[in-house]
Specification:
By secondary structure, the chain is an alpha/beta fold. It contains 16 helices and 15 strands. The chain has an eight-stranded mixed sheet, with helices on both faces. It has a seven-stranded parallel sheet with strand order 3-2-1-4-5-6-15, sandwiched between helices. Helix 3 links the parallel strand 2 and strand 3. Helix 14 packs antiparallel against helix 15. It starts with a helix and ends with a helix.
């Protein structure tokens, strides 16, 4: 991860995060661990938990704890334990900076730990889902400290969401099922940046791709990209594999389960496990069994069996290792620079969702190109004057 290494080396002497206590809730695997070490190397005191019980890797959590960080996480923990871990990260850190993935830390700060809010200078949000929650809070004048929209940075969503999700989703599905994708009908629900990546990789693996959407512009884009577009009620009858990546709830429900093919595989790549109605599937099924490691089979009253991967949680993290390191290097470079930005501008920022500064976005891109050995042109003075920049 040369970008994070470079940020650490360039700023280690200045210690821009000295004296800062950071509460972090992100999928706790190797790339996240390195981000934690970089932030600690810049002077921060780290309090760490995982943002999903099935994506936490115990060996990684243990390594951070042995390295002196405050870690509250365990793979496969119950919902109650997950809530306790999240609460302890906040209560024990009394944070100055909050780094969130999905919005759980920020939500808890604004509901149960409001007394700690005066000590918070700001935070960073990693995901589309989390930013959606923050925007609702800001609109309702409920957000009480500034939050940098990391996911809105070009060097995050254009690469992490599209290329990272696109590859890691199929890594998770392929390693878990050991089935071929070529020739199958793959239904991708949602054609945002993540959905574009998932559909592109499915097409590359030889699948016949169907997209479901509610946004007419995105639906039109999917058509122009060469995919079939139809409502889920029609796609449910056709699909062999389903990947939900909408950030919304109730995408695949009981009405769809009952019309699906025998052996259809249901997966979710949205942040929360609400896109496939797992409670509805549990209630509908007459029998449930473990078909394979991390694959659950549900036998329906009509005799057909549907399969889910990782209990409907994030398939690329709960059934895989998440995005490749080269991708997360960019995303976490944005995170590290956002934390520095908050520390440097703490007295200037109002409680609101704020954009990642464009000049920092460009700096991340330049670092990445340099690390890849790629050179670009630059504007001459005459060209810059012509363009008015």
């Amino acid at each position: 991860m040369p970008l994070l290494c470079g940020i650490l080396e360039d700023n280690r002497a200045q210690q821009p995060l000295a004296g800062m206590r950071i509460a972090l809730s992100v999928h706790l695997e190797a790339k996240t661990a390195f981000l934690c070490r970089v932030l600690a190397g810049l002077g921060a005191e780290m309090y760490v938990t995982g943002s999903n019980p099935l994506s936490t890797q115990d060996d990684v959590a243990a390594a951070l704890a042995h390295g002196g960080m405050n870690v509250f996480a365990a793979h496969g923990c119950t919902d109650k334990e997950y809530a306790e871990h999240t609460a302890r990260v906040i209560s024990e850190s009394r944070p100055n900076i909050v780094i969130d993935d999905g919005g759980d830390l920020v939500h808890l700060m604004h509901t149960k730990y409001t007394g700690l809010i005066p000590g918070v200078i700001g935070g960073c949000e990693e995901t589309t889902t989390g930013i959606h929650r923050l925007r609702i809070m800001a609109k309702n004048h409920e957000l009480r400290f500034p939050m940098v929209m990391v996911n809105e940075a070009d060097c995050k969503h254009m690469f992490d969401n599209r290329y990272g999700t696109g590859q890691s989703v199929w890594d998770g599905i392929n390693r878990t099922t050991n089935l071929i994708v070529a020739g199958k009908y793959v239904v991708v629900s949602g054609y945002g940046w993540c959905g574009k990546g998932v559909a592109l990789r499915a097409k590359g693996l030889g699948a016949k791709v169907i997209v479901t959407e509610v946004d007419p512009i995105r639906a039109l884009e999917a058509v122009m990209d060469g995919y079939e577009v139809m409502p889920m009620k029609d796609a449910a009858r056709v699909g062999d594999m389903f990947v939900t990546v909408t950030g919304c709830s109730g995408i695949i429900t009981t009405e769809h389960f009952e019309t699906m093919k025998d052996g259809a595989i249901l997966t979710n790549a949205g942040h929360f496990d609400v896109e496939v109605d797992m409670a509805g599937l549990e209630k509908l099924a007459v029998r449930k069994y473990d078909a394979r490691h991390n694959i659950q089979g549900y036998v329906l009253p009509n005799g057909k069996t549907l399969f889910t991967i990782a209990e409907g949680r994030l398939v690329n993290l709960a059934a895989g290792d998440g995005h490749p390191a080269e991708i997360m290097d960019m995303s976490f470079a944005v995170q590290a620079l956002s934390a520095e930005y908050l520390a440097q501008h703490r007295r200037e920022l109002a409680p609101d969702v704020i954009a990642f500064p464009h000049e920092l976005d460009l700096a991340v891109a330049r670092r990445k190109l340099k690390a890849m050995g790629v050179e670009t042109d630059s504007l001459s003075g005459e060209q810059a004057e012509y363009l008015g920049v």
